[in-house]
Amino acid sequence: MKKIAFLAFLFVVSCKKEKLPPIDDKIDLDGKQVNDSSLIDPSAFLLSSAIPNPTSTDLQKHVIITAHGFSATNFEWLEFSSWSKGKSDLLVSRVLLGGHGRDYADFQKAKWEDWQKPIIDEYDRLVSIGYKNISLAGSSTGCPLIIEMIASNKIVTDNLKHIFLVDPIVIPSTKTLPLAPVLGGWIINYITTDLEPAENGYWYKYRPHQALKELNKITKRVRKDLQKGIDLPAGVKLTVFKAEKDDAADPASAVLIEKGIKGSKIKMLNTDLHVFTRLLGRASFSTSDKDLQLMTFEEIYNSL
Amino acid sequence: MKIKEKIVLYISLILALSVNKVCSQDSTLKISGGICINKMVGFYFMNGVSGEISTSKILKGKVDLGLNITTSSLGSAFVSNAIPVHSAELYIQKVFRNGKHFRPLIVLNAGYAKAFYGSKIYDNLPQSSLLVSPEFGMRYAFNFPIVFNATLGYNVISGNGVSGAGFIYPVYIRFKALYAFGKK
Fold first, then answer.
1. pLDDT for B1 beyond 80
2. B122 CB near a chain A CB, below 8 Å?
3. Rounded to two decimals, what is the model's pTM?
4. Which of A139, A76, A146, A72 is nearest to A107 (CA)?
5. The domain over range A2-303 is classified in CATH as 3.40.50.1820
């Protein structure tokens, strides 16, 4: 409830008619100086860059391509990536969504298709390199981007094995989001989010109305796709991990996915953390949060 | 939750019985009924029926009292995978410029909505909500006993899916086509 009140407060505060937010270039990802590290050193994040010439043993390993959420960076999947180093038959490729990890102007310009493109590109590269067992893992907005890829047949799914969705956003918690196209640009220019100090530099602090409009578009599009029904490609499994008390991505998103994608497996989890698989950077979390995170990592791995 | 459903049911029943009673002895009674098409901006179509009455015995006939019963099963969830959501609302309505073709109107609705998520795994999620919404718009009255209403409303209670049901979006557009019974 507090969070809603706070969001409402931010909404009102952000109603000021100023064009640009007060970006602190030294701290904020929204500024020109701080960028996501994957833009400088892709080989530390993308499997296609890290191992351009894999051995035949590498090609048989399980590969998980991760896609982060709206306004975030691949930092969201850092802990999973680090955890996966302990599994000799698992490789993780962390994708940075288009328009993300750069600056405010890039975020303003990018369409949801731009956000999605790096996921498709990395998948295609890994397929062409010869990886046989590829899975996709999305968190928050990464999830509708992945669902849309499948619904619109944007990838050849012969080598796709599993889709994991962590706190998918199909119904946003903020029900005023559909008003972004109407109010954006004259009543609101951007919405400010409250970041923990350790999250600075990994998330955009300011969400331009253009980006909110794109978020509205992709969630609406996926809701329509789910209403019609989406067929999972043959041999592909889908598992949803959804926090029951998630106040950013309405938990009913899981209901829509279960109804819209026959055969999907839904796990409703007793936590209030949005993207509970990412604990790094949070001001505090409990041991049960940590247990749930590790349990989910194990479950993802064991499902491969 | 079942208690709330019962309350709505009883109120509807009492309303229906009152209409029946008043009907037999009141010459100022006007009864209209018809269809209601409802679109929550950014979410579902919920369609159904509406009925309203006015009589000199209720607030001197200056307002109409009515009932909307709508469901996504006749809207977005019709032959689709959308969530079935059913709602019932009672309303009080004031129409201005009676006698003219174009009549501004204001409405206050109060009711209850319930969704069916379809699995026990969602039992911890809120699946019902009270509804309260002011609404305003325009009525067009034809020369024959049919009126069209086009209104814009605002659901005061809308949830984030945790502290309140997430299937109620705040802004909605509503269209009604009502036939006035007994008029020529």
1. no
2. yes
3. 0.88
4. A72
5. yes
Cβ contact A132:A59 at 8 Å: yes
Q: What is the C-alpha to C-alpha distance for residues A10 and A22, in angstroms, rounded to an integer?
A: 14
Residue A294 host element (H or E) = helix A287-303
Residues whose CB is less than 8 angstroms from the CB of residue B18 and which lie 6 or more positions away in sequence, other chains included: none
B157 touches chain A (CB under 8 A): no
The answer, for B20 touching chain A at a CB cutoff of 8 Å, is no
Q: Which residues of A touch B82 (CB under 8 A)?
A: 227, 256, 259
Report the distance separating Cα B129 and Cα B4, nearest Å.
10
Percent of chain A with pLDDT over 90: 75
Rounded to 5 degrees, φ, ψ at B59 are 45, 40
| Paired tokens of A246 | 């998630």
The answer for residues whose C-beta is within 8 angstroms of residue A101's C-beta and 6 or more apart is: A29, A35, A36, A38, A39, A73, A74
What number of other Cβ atoms are within 10 A of residue A156's Cβ? Answer: 11
Contact, A269 vs A63, CB < 8 A? Answer: no
As a whole number of angstroms, the distance between CA B7 and CA B12 comes to 8
The residue whose two tokens read 């209030």 is A272
Find the radius of gyration of the CA atoms of chain A.
18
Closest A-chain CA to B127: A252
Mean pLDDT of A17-43: 83
B41 touches chain A (CB under 8 A): yes
Q: Do A259 and B163 touch (CB under 8 A)?
A: no
Binary contact (A177, B125; C-beta < 8 A)? no
CATH for the stretch B2-181: 2.40.160.20
**Residue A179 and residue B168: Cβ atoms within 8 Å?**
no
Contact A175 B163 (CB under 8 A): no
How is chain B split into domains, by residue range?
2-181
Q: Is the dihedral of CA B12, B15, B21, B22 positive or negative?
A: negative
Q: Do B169 and A252 touch (CB under 8 A)?
A: no
The pLDDT of residue A2: 54
Rounded distance, CA B66 to CA B90, Å? 6
Cβ contact A244–B124 (<8 Å): yes
| pLDDT (mean) for B93-111 | 94
Interface test with B, best of A174, A175, A179, A219 (most B CBs within 10 A): A175
**Does B17 contact A at CB distance below 8 Å?**
no
B154 touches A at CB < 8 Å: no
With a cut of 0.85, is the ipTM above it? no
